[in-house]
Amino acid sequence: MNAISWNCIGLGNPRTVRALWDMVKSHKPNILFLMETLSYKERIKHLCGKMGFDNHWTVECVGRSGGIALFWKSNVKCIVCNQGINFIDVQITNVNEVKWRLTGFYGFPERARKREVWGLLKMLAGVSDLPWVVVGDFNDMVNISDKKGNYAHPQSFLDGFKRTIEECGLIELEWREKYFHAYATSRKKQNQVGYLKDESGAMINKHEEMCELVKGYFSRIFGGTERLEMNSLDEQEAVITEEHNRDLIAEFKIEEFSEAIKQMHPDKSAGPDGLNPAFYQHFWGLCGKDVFQCCKNWLVDLAFPLGLNDTNVVLIPKKDNTDEMKDLRPIALCNVLYKVISKVLANRLKEILPVAQAIPSYAMSCFLLPKSLCIDLERMMNSYFWGSQEDIKKGIRWTSWTNMSMSKEQGGLAFHDLHGLWQAKESQKQGYRWVVGDGRSINLGADKWLRGKEGHRVDEQCLSLVRNLKVCDLFVSGTKEWDVTKVHNLFSSSDARFILAIPIPNNQFQDRIVWNYSLDGKYSAKSGYRFWQQHYSQCK
């Protein structure tokens, strides 16, 4: 039987969960004891299944500290006998029916409570005569050589804990600190990105050049240069009442920012300023008024200070020996104050959730809302629709929000996927094509212009011949007719048929962009959203 105990110092950090997963995957323990989980039962229950365990027992955290949990697999016959805020005591029966005790123990870190820890151990030692194994962290020591740091450890504490161990009949089996330090060091080296290859395959290993490569890569993915015609906002029907609007634009209060800070997990990774939510939560009494006044001024003046929305991008390798950007998964770490402002705005919108689904789709597709804000809004709407009248946060989620946002033809309720609404705007890049006019603006190889062909682009094998040509270069000189011979010489027979089937207007109309998924060729948020939904469901 294999057992592991670990002081995880909070399970809210994705890196901690990843390290725990790697540890479980590597050592395949039958029993796992976690200390300082800083989590509640729902989180522990989810983690139990994710880690491949069948059973668990949880002692929830108190406020922002503590919390312990014991996981075990179905092949372990385990009975929970006792528990406390810092211990879980179980009886285990081996396959040969031999019974023994296992206690997961986490000692109080405060020096003033050392004797309380010793007394608790002595009490546990006396409740049974079964063989006894204690795992965990006593937050104590028997040898001064185990001490690290500058503060001396009183000899009386060393002697007291040593006597307690002896009276309980316990002996120290193994000291695991070196193992976990080596494990963390190995993990860090494994995740280190020493170099990256650019588009040409050249190796880049200088930090500044790698940063520019990363920046350029994501700029190309999330940026855009196309300018597309938009409808007027004046045509959109108002759905927010004057009362709603007064609430939304009311003067900000310090209580709104205090509540937003409290709603954030304390151990979320810090952004460029190096401060996590726990800092603001702990020192809110000292800095709260200054934070409120600054954020309020920024919102009223409609201007963020330089650096507020700066973001650290952490690249997580998807596989071993990563050397290309496509094999790295980005995690964006924003400054806490930037996230606080988003949460304050989301909380205000919470009051108008019954009409949130009626927010004009066009407005949502025009203005790029932060993904975190869309997620917060959808969580609120999810709670609103599934929660009970007594407590909106509780209730059974009979289906996922993703299913609810599907069209009724697909079995959904046609609720708006808020993040999908602005992603629909991005889908224009996939859904538009050029209509031939004078042929001077359309690049034969780079643009989408073949009417009737899926993808609307010419075959790749033709690109080298037409890369720098425009559509007008395919006209008979001085006319608005296709040069049939040239078309057949430059393109495949299939592409030639598509090209020659395109009518050329006799007037001097310029080339224009049309939306390929509406009858009039004009983009609308409704048609864009439907296109995005269909594409999303196909990807699923």
Keywords:
single chain, 540 residues, alpha+beta, Deoxyribonuclease I, Chain A, 4-stranded mixed sheet, 14 strands, 39% helix
Characterize the structure shown.
With 540 residues, this protein is an alpha+beta fold. It has a domain at 3-186: Endonuclease/exonuclease/phosphatase (Deoxyribonuclease I, Chain A). Helices cover 39% and strands 14% of the residues. It contains 20 helices and 14 strands. It has helices at residues 14-27, 41-50, 114-125, 155-167, 177-191, 207-222, 242-248, 254-262, 277-282, 284-301, 336-350, 361-366, 371-386, 401-404, 418-426, 428-431, 463-466, 484-490, 493-500, 525-539, and strands spanning 3-7, 31-35, 55-59, 68-72, 77-84, 87-93, 99-106, 132-137, 196-197, 203-204, 311-317, 328-334, 432-435, 512-515. The strands form five sheets. It has a four-stranded mixed β-sheet with strand order 1-2-4-3, covered by helices on one side. Strand 3 and strand 4 form a beta hairpin. Helix 11 (336-350) packs parallel to helix 13 (371-386) and helix 18 packs antiparallel against helix 19 (493-500). The longest helix is centred in the middle third of the chain and has 18 residues, at 284-301. It is elongated, with a radius of gyration of 31 Å. The chain starts with a strand and ends with a helix. 21% of the residues are buried. The model is unreliable at 225-233 and 388-393 (pLDDT under 50).
